[in-house]
Amino acid sequence: MASPAVVLVGADKGGVGKTTVARTLLDYLQARKLPTRAFDTESPKGTLKRFHPEITEIVDITTVADQMRVFDSLSEAQVTVIDVRAGLLTPTLRALRDIGFTDAARKGQISLTLFHILGPTISSLEEITETAEHVGGTRYHLVKNFINNTSFFEWDQATYDNYFRRLEGVAEITIPKLNEMAAEQVELSGVPFLSFVANKTSKGEPAAYSFVLRGYVRHWLSHVWAEYDRIKLSDHLGPRDVVPLRAGQSG
Questions:
Q1: How far apart are CA 143 and CA 56, in angstroms?
Q2: Potential cystine with 216: which of 33, 154, 182, 184 (Cβ 3.0-4.6 Å)?
Q3: Residue 175: helix, strand or coil by DSSP?
Q4: What is the pTM of this model?
Q5: Is pLDDT at 165 greater than 50 in this prediction?
Q6: d(CA 122, CA 12)
Q7: Angle in degrees, CA 9, 151, 47, rounded to 5
Q8: Helix or strand or coil: residue 113?
């Protein structure tokens, strides 16, 4: 029997594209037929829920009541994806430590995966200092999300290495930049990336999205999913019988 699987997507710094990454993860897991639910901690409004309303609930992860709502209902048959609001990553990891969740992950009773989204400045690397002491027992992934035309880690290699040597078994993931017009049209459509590629509305009806922009999203999503395949993400989230799909294919 597979262990309950939890995926945290977050950063203490804002504006680094956490929800974009969470959306690609939900599409990836859906394409691989992994039963998934999601929690949007951007209470009370929420952004993730706008794109994946059928599987997403909005919670205030800082309250004990909503922590119980999330972690007391874990299922071995489902993957739980949590989009952690800016500024709440370290507090959330601290809470997981305090309730014994991290210890359970170390013992293999729960599968805990962390996607730590980095921005292009030194302040993002400094977050590693805060999170490093809380990531024992997790599969820790540092994600370079190129949401802007900026360069990452424009400092000397010694500085870069100084932060990364503090972590054991950390994996790096690169999310390439999506064409700006394509990204804007997906935002306006309010549908998952997969639905946009498939030219479907939120109700599953035929849409009239641009063929060109759909092509840009399909190409981008295939690169994102290749990164998830490289780290064997679907394998880590539980031994289930799934058939890998390429971005743009329907189930």
A1: 23
A2: 182
A3: strand
A4: 0.89
A5: yes
A6: 13
A7: 30
A8: strand
Q: Classify residue 108 as exposed, middle or buried by CB count within 10 Å of its CB (0-12, 13-18, 19+).
A: exposed
Give the phi and the psi of residue 58 in degrees, each rounded to 5. -95, 130
Contacts of 95 (CB under 8 A, 6+ apart): 61, 67
User: What are the chain's domains?
Assistant: 5-178+225-236 (3.40.50.300)
CB atoms < 10 A from the CB of 101, how many?
19
Classify the phi-psi angles of 108: left when phi > 0, otherwise alpha if psi is within -120 to 50, otherwise beta.
left
Residue for token digits 């210890």? 103
In this predicted model, what pLDDT tens digit does every residue of 98-155 receive, in sequence order?
A: 999 999 998 989 999 999 998 766 666 677 777 777 777 789 898 988 875 555 555 4
The pair of three-digit structure tokens given for residue 49, joined into one six-digit string? 């829920």
The DSSP H or E segment spanning 186 is: helix 180-189
